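=== Discrete structure encoding ===
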Amino acid sequence: MTLEPIDPETALDLYLADRENEMSQATIYSHSSRLGHFVRWCDDQEITNLNDLTGRSLHQYRIWRRDDGNLKPVSEKTQMDTLRVFIKWLESIDGVAEDLHAKVLSPTLGDGENVRTVMLDPGFADTILNHLRKFEYASRPHVALTLMWHTMVRIGAARALDVKDYNPDEQSLRIVHRPETGTPIKNQKNGERFIALSDDICGLLDDWIETTRIDFVEESGRRPLLTTDQGRAHKTTLRGDCYRYTRPCHLGKECPHGRDVETCSGTKYDKAFNCPSSKSPHAIRRGAITYALNRDWPKPAVSDRANVSEGVLDRHYDQRTEQEKMEQRRQFLDNL
């Protein structure tokens, strides 16, 4: 096998361009970010030709990255697994030695070590939505958080919604993958689906569209459902809504961490994520999924609504305790 010289930056650019049609924009961004550290390390080590990479140098990078980022095993595994994919791709273009990817080592995690458990408590979700319904009815945060909780959609899917995707007659939302106009969704075409809505949610959407939503038409002719005065709401904006409205102090509750609201950085508009109680969109999604399971929704129904396989649902989203699962099974005893 004859290797062809290639520098780290060019290799990363070619890799991302090659994977662009296979991965969502969010995944592309994640790979770019993780592999950016590898390019930085190559620069520090004066490695200008990836042909020179060896198993030993990849191990040296692993140690450097672990210390440089103060990484926990879960994060280190994510970083090294992405590097392994990148190195394997480099093999396909004769950029590194054959089977070099097999020498990229990453930590072996114990059971449950790679599972996040942070989620929005259903009781607190009610408190948040009741607060918004009373004080900020049909505002963007009210609509965004209500949709995320009741439909279990990911933040990218919420952002991708257009006005025409809401059908008030059929009481449904349509989730559509539209990468050509800037709104890809996770799982791409496989993530497309219809989601049924309740009377209350339809009423809120009707009021939002008729009275509060800032009308905006994109160059493509699309009319986003969730808008700001700058156009379609950005993920950062929607993520900020989640962090801000899941802070207890924002709802007039006492700080459970003993912080002084006058000096706490988490009370600032753009620093809400500094509050230990604030929740990300994914934590809201995880809480909503767990709540549905606790309400005896069948797993296939939750799987289809949330667009997540039952296997992933069990491992990463179902936060019911073993005792809660037992009590739910109790209803079937009479059928034995």
Summary: The chain has 13 helices and five strands. The beta strands are 166-167, 172-175, 193-196, 227-228, 231-232. The mean pLDDT is 88. The two ends are 64 Å apart (CA to CA).
